[in-house]
Amino acid sequence: MIGGMIDSCAAPVSWEQLVDYWAGELSAEVEASLEEHLIGCAVCTATSARVAALTEALRAEIAPLLTADAIARLRAKGLRIAENPMLPAERKRVPFPADIDLLIHRLGGLDLTRATRVSFSLRVEETDHVVVEIGDAPFDRDSGAILLACQHHFDVLPPNTVAQVRTHDEGGSVTVSEYTILHLYAVT
Amino acid sequence: MATAARCSAAWPTRWAPDPRPRYSVRVLGDGGPDQLPDDELVRRIEGGRDRPAEAALCRRFAARIRLYGLRHLRDEDRAGDLVQTVLMGVIEACRAGRVQEADKVDRFILGTCRNAAARMREVEGRVQLTGGDELAEMALAEAGEVEVIDKRTLIRCLAGLEARAARILALCFQEERSADEIAGLLAMEPGNVRVVRHRALASLRRCFDRGAAG
Question: Which residues of A touch B170 (CB under 8 A)?
Answer without folding.
Answer: 58, 63-64, 134
